Structures are given as structure tokens and as C-alpha cells.
Amino acid sequence: MNYSKIAGTGSYLPNRVVTNSELQTRIDTSDEWIVSRTGIEARHIAAEGEKTTDLAEHAARAAMAAANVNADDIDLIIVATTTPDKVFPSTACLLQARLGVKQGAAFDVQAVCTGFVYALSIADKFVASGQHRCALVVGAEIFSRLLDWNDRRTCVLFGDGAGAVVLKASKEPGILSSHLYADGSMGHILQVDGGVSAGKLADNPYLQMDGAAVFRLATRVLHECATEALRHNGFTVEDLDWLVPHQANMRIINSTTDKLNLPRERVITTVAQHGNTSAASVPLALDTAVRDQRIKPGQLVLIEGVGGGMTWGSVLLRF
Ligand code: COA
């Protein structure tokens, strides 16, 4: 039996940090409002001219170095992004060229904030089937360019960044299960309606959100996903070393954690300093906790996400 296992992680954040204090000089908001509703204190914002592929490349190179692999080893690149640099080629193909990878497949996955969970699940199937041996799975986003910076209900919530893992074929289990879901009938509660069509920008190019509806759905499905992943593998909450949830909002994360009866010390959170970086949020949080040595080899880690679509899902893995 073939499995896939994470061999290395990496991440990257743009240099510029925008604090809540800076935002309150520009729009009618306050540090107190943002922190009490979301837990977010600051976010990183890409520089003008900085591209999603740039962020992805930094994160990918860090993950490749951690896994001790080079361009000749990688035979699959999947990039989860909602903010590709171009309509096409895909960000994965742009990244493949940057890294000098000459073999295998490269494609993007679009599941918004659940994108990395989807991409990791897909990569696991490809690697476990034996068809591919070494995958680079990246979540990279420049969400700041989808925001109306005059809309205080949405612009305070998001940030830019990238995270990556190298997923290798293994004889021992790494990824134990993945469960993916979507409910397209809920798409309107979190969307960017606009796009390029017939040479023009059609409809609203900014993110629109029914915050309360997203909050309700997120707290429900993240709890369901976590419970399902543990039960499916015959584990209980006591067996779980770490939960690495999508970093949208501290209140959503705390609600999920408390409903599970999981001690909050066993949850990795980066949302305070990163904001919601969409598909980059889970691999950024994962890499943070791997590098500060909280997550150690052999530990049981549950990652989960929820986002536009609406989409949601989990991956349970032995690190
Ligand atoms: N600063 C100050 N006031 C703000 C504000 C801001 N940045 N954003 C909204 N407000 C105001 C609203 O206008 C409203 O004022 P009103 O009552 O005078 O109309 C008031 O604060 C309360 O707004 P409300 O939407 O009820 O706040 P909330 O407690 O529900 O929190 C969210 C709003 C967005 C933080 C919350 O709904 C949420 O976290 N939703 C999930 C969002 C998310 O995670 N999306 C991504 C998922 S992948």
C-alpha cells in the first residue's frame, strides 16, 4: 500500500504589515472592534507589482529546502488560489517555470479558503495511487486586491501570504483521510461577482459577504468535519495532538475548539498576525508550528477549512 506524507513545509509573508491602528486612520473602524469581533491585530499586504506567483515561489522554495528535494524530484504542482496572476496560464504552471521543474503535471485548484485542504487531498490521491511520487502543494493569495478598502465590513478581515508543503510517496501512513464538501446553493453569502468578460470588467470586482451567514455555516461545518475525521479513523479528541484550522476569525476557531472539547493550547492560531489569507491560511499556520517545533514528527494533526463556494473539508494526517 502506498501513502503520501508531508516531507517539508514552507511559507512566506509580504514585508508590509498593516495594523488595525493604521486601518483606523483610514476608515471608520477601531482596533477594539476588530480584535473583539475577529481576534485580528495585523495583516501582511503585498507590495504593488508583487504577484501571487512571487509569494508562491518563496513558500515553495522554503518547503523544498525543508524536504531536501530539488526541481528534478517534483512531478506534480498544485496551487490553491483565488487570486491567480493571469486568467491563464495557471499559477501552478507559472510556478513550475520559475522553479525549473520540467516534468509532471501542474494545475490550480479554486476552492477559496478551503483551497489548500482540497489541493492536499487531491495531491494525496495522485501520490497514493503511485502515479506521482513527489508533489508540491501550495496555497497562495493576494486577497487584498479583491477588497474594497472603503468597506469596513470586509477589508479588515483579510491579508496576503503563501504556504506550501512537499508531499512524498511513503510506505508509512502520512495522510490518513480527507473529506471534502461543497454547497453551491450557498455561494451568494461569500463571493466576488465580477470577472473579465468580452474585454471588460463585468459586475462587482470586490468581495461581498453576509458575515453572519458565513459565521453560522463555518461554526457548524468545522465542528462536523473534525468529528467526522476523527470518527472515520477510530480516534477520539484525546488522540489529537494539534488542530490547524482555517484562520478566518478567532471566534470561529474558539467555537469549533470548545464544541470539540479540545483544549485551546492544542490549536495552532496565526490569525492575529496574518488575518484571513484564504487558501494560504492553513499551510501558513502549519509551517509556523512546524518551524517553532510545536508540531513534531509522528504527531496526529487535523487540518480543516471552510470558504467561498461554499466549500469545506478536512485532512487528518500523521506528521
Ligand atoms: N469596524 C467597526 N464597525 C464595524 C466594522 C468594522 N470593521 N464592520 C462592521 N461594523 C459594524 C456594522 O456596520 C454594524 O453596525 P450597525 O449595527 O450600526 O449596522 C456592527 O458593527 C455590527 O456588525 P455585525 O455584522 O453584527 O458584527 P458581528 O458581530 O456579526 O461581526 C463579522 C461581523 C464579519 C466579524 C462576523 O460576522 C464574522 O466573523 N463572520 C465570518 C466572516 C468570515 O470569517 N469570513 C471568511 C470566511 S472564509
Polypeptide structure, described:
The two termini are 18 Å apart. Strands 1-7-6-4-5 form a 5-stranded mixed β-sheet, sandwiched between helices. Strands 8-15-14-13 form a 4-stranded mixed β-sheet, sandwiched between helices. It has a two-stranded antiparallel sheet with strand order 2-3. The chain is of the alpha+beta class and 319 residues long. Strand 10 (195-197) and strand 11 form a beta hairpin. Helix 7 runs parallel beside helix 8. It folds into 2 domains: 3-172, Thiolase/Chalcone synthase (Peroxisomal Thiolase, Chain A, domain 1); 176-318, Thiolase/Chalcone synthase (Peroxisomal Thiolase, Chain A, domain 1). The radius of gyration is 18 Å and the shape is globular. The protein has helices at residues 20-24, 31-38, 52-67, 91-99, 115-128, 152-155, 211-232, 250-260, 271-274, 281-291; strands at 3-12, 16-19, 42-45, 76-80, 105-109, 134-142, 160-170, 175-182, 190-192, 195-197, 200-202, 207-209, 242-245, 300-307, 311-318. Coenzyme A binds next to helix 2, helix 6, helix 7 and strand 14. The site of coenzyme A has 21 residues, from helix 2, helix 6, helix 7 and strand 14.
